[in-house]
Write a structure and sequence with these properties.
Blueprint: H1 2-26, E1 32-40, E2 50-56, E3 61-67, E4 72-77, E5 87-89, E6 97-105, E7 112-113, E8 118-121, E9 135-140, E10 149-158, H2 163-170, E11 173-178, E12 184-190, E13 194-199, E14 205-209, E15 213-217, E16 223-229, E17 240-242, E18 251-253, E19 259-272, E20 284-296, E21 303-308, H3 326-329, E22 335-337, E23 341-347, E24 352-357, E25 362-367, E26 373-378, E27 392-393, E28 404-408, E29 413-418, E30 439-446, E31 451-457, E32 468-470, E33 473-476, E34 483-486, E35 489-491, H4 503-506, E36 511-519, E37 525-532, E38 539-549
Parallel strand pairs: 16-17, 20-22, 27-31
Antiparallel strand pairs: 1-2, 2-5, 3-4, 3-6, 6-7, 6-8, 9-37, 10-11, 10-38, 11-12, 13-14, 14-15, 15-16, 18-19, 19-20, 20-21, 23-24, 24-25, 25-26, 28-29, 29-30, 30-31, 32-35, 33-34, 34-36, 35-36, 36-37
């Protein structure tokens, strides 16, 4: 027995000694096996970025301190990132010399710095007003703004209706990020116009292109994933096929990682309208485009949920611009545009989807499980059997028209970017362009009482009002409860009084755009304003949307 105890004690001592040795080895700070090297981003799509490479003695967290003399910031990459494969150095401003210092650490240990100070010179921006939007900072009050950077997607628009002009406009795609002072800190260029985008849960960016693709990129501009709609007129391309006709306007990443996207379908309908101005115009069989909401699995592209507007709404309730050539320009010949959804947003609070139908002048809330319409917020005429789903006005309320971007807020309200176009739906005569205005507006929505009450708006009719004829976005900002507004396509003041609602009339004039962050005060206070107007007589700039994100990088 004594011998057994002695042997057991000896064995414990050996094990303890081994543990101490291993623990001591593990507690050794990491070291650089290959010292850091800083290279230009090999992907020209993101020129304001560099790639840092090094090798370490163990998996480490990399701390990258960057300064340009006026600004300094730190990037952190955990041990899941392989530094020998390259780490993105982002957030740099154009045409400046930057100093970069690198440290590494294991776990919660002290950082081990590299003795080298690396340098990187960023290139200047592309030609102002031609290949890059002309950015003017009108207001900047960083202390009153929502933290983060503003990610937005400017669009270039040359005046005219020729094929060359159309290609010039559609072949320009860009995402760009501005800091609180309005300085460019990152941008990405692609050969197709971009509509909606968002920062994914994995830190990458996902966006919708004009040629019916969804593209996921990292912050160096490298394509990580790509999906395409199988029905797109351009045919198959690289990436994962999703069995649907189109991707257009808007995406949303669900908590499951699945992707929710706007799609569409064509149905031929007998005895359909041929005019939005003349109710008695001869009717005929028409190919009509209706919207579809599609949810698909990220890895496979398999469609797991669909909602079709044709199955829930009356296709004979048309809106102004139904007979525009929106879908014809996109490859669907002789097809009219009935519902024109332009935004969707998943609301995890009650597992619902809010979708906006521009031509219907309505935002609709859909229960995701039953697919039933919960409520309809918008212009109240012509809903027929759906009239019991309408939210009724509580007090004085101005209904939005041709609106964008309804967003439920944590306060139970609904934000909307109200373009205010037409101020009517067929077959009531629209208001003149000069009698309308554009605003961001907030409503209190009571789903039980089925009412809506107007709470706040960014501007009113008056000499300083603006008119956005397309696009636009509004976002409620959680830390400050400010409101970020992207104004879409604004008519130039010189064109007011000369332009009508018809597309052919608007094509003769340049357009401009702006970004504003408001404090929701009375009257509203502008704490950030970026204007994109420029001085070229043939080229204007518009904006699909903008988001305030936590920062540049994953």
């Amino acid at each position: 027995m004594e011998s057994f105890t002695s042997k057991g004690t000896m064995l414990k001592s050996v094990v303890l000694l081994a543990a101490v040795i291993v623990s001591g080895a593990c507690s050794q700070p990491p070291s650089f096996l290959v010292e850091p090297v800083l290279k230009s981003n090999p992907n020209p799509a993101v020129p304001l970025a560099a790639v840092l490479e090094f090798e370490a003695s163990a998996p480490v967290t990399a701390l990258i301190d960057v300064t340009d003399g006026d600004h300094e910031w730190q990037l952190e990459y955990g041990p899941e990132h392989d530094p020998s494969a390259g780490l993105p150095v982002v957030g740099m401003r154009p045409d400046r010399r930057h100093e970069v210092r690198v440290s590494i650490r294991s776990g919660d240990g002290a950082p081990v710095p590299s003795p080298d100070v690396l340098e990187f010179q960023t290139p200047p921006l592309p030609e102002w007003g031609v290949d890059f939007p002309p950015i003017e900072v009108a207001v900047s009050k960083p202390g009153e703004m929502e933290p983060g950077v503003t990610l937005f997607n400017p669009r270039r628009r040359r005046v005219g209706r020729s094929q060359a002009v159309a290609e010039f406009n559609a072949a320009f795609g860009m995402l760009a990020a501005l800091d609180s002072a309005g300085e460019v800190v990152w941008y990405y260029s692609v050969d197709s116009r971009i509509s909606d985008f968002e920062k994914s849960g994995n830190g990458n960016l996902i966006f919708v292109t004009a040629d019916f693709r969804l593209i996921e990129i990292d912050w160096l501009g490298n394509t990580v994933n790509q999906w395409y709609a199988t029905g797109r007129p351009q045919g198959p391309t690289d990436g994962i096929a999703v069995d649907t006709l189109t991707f257009h306007h808007e995406i949303d990443e669900l908590p499951s990682g699945n992707i929710l996207v706007l799609s569409s379908e064509v149905r031929e309908i007998d005895d359909y309208y041929t005019s939005e101005y003349d109710e008695n115009a001869p009717r005929k069989r028409q190919k009509v485009m209706g919207d579809v909401i599609v949810e698909f699995e990220r890895d496979t592209g398999n469609v797991v949920w669909e909602w079709k507007a044709f199955d829930h709404m009356d296709p004979f309730r048309i809106g102004y611009e139904t007979f525009s050539n929106y879908w014809i320009r996109r490859g669907f010949a002789d097809t009219v545009d009935w519902s024109h959804a332009n935004n969707l947003l998943y609301d995890p609070a009650d597992d619902s989807v809010v979708v906006n139908f521009r031509y219907q002048a309505a935002a609709i809330k859909i229960d995701r499980q039953s697919k039933e319409i919960v409520w309809i917020f918008g212009e109240p005429t012509g809903w027929g059997e759906l009239s019991d789903k309408l939210l009724k006005a509580d007090g004085e309320l101005q209904w939005p028209y041709h609106q964008h971007s309804p967003q439920p807020t944590p306060n139970g309200t609904l934000m909307i970017f109200d373009n205010g176009n037409y101020q009517a739906r067929p077959f009531r005569k629209p208001s003149a362009v000069t009698d309308t205005f554009t605003r961001a507006v907030e409503y209190a929505v009571d789903g039980e009482a089925m009412t809506a009450r107007q709470l706040w708006q960014s501007e009113v009719m008056g000499p300083d009002r603006v008119i956005s004829i397309a696009m636009g976005d509004v976002d409620w900002l959680p830390a400050t409860e400010n409101v970020l507004v992207a104004y879409g396509a604004l008519l130039h003041p010189d064109s007011l009084g000369k332009v009508g609602w018809e597309s052919s009339s608007r094509q003769q004039f340049t357009q401009w755009t702006r970004l504003r962050e408001y404090k929701r005060a009375d009257p509203p206070e502008v704490v950030y304003e970026i204007v994109m107007k420029g001085d070229r007589p043939d080229t204007g700039w518009t904006l699909f949307g903008a988001e305030r994100i936590d920062g540049v990088g994953p």
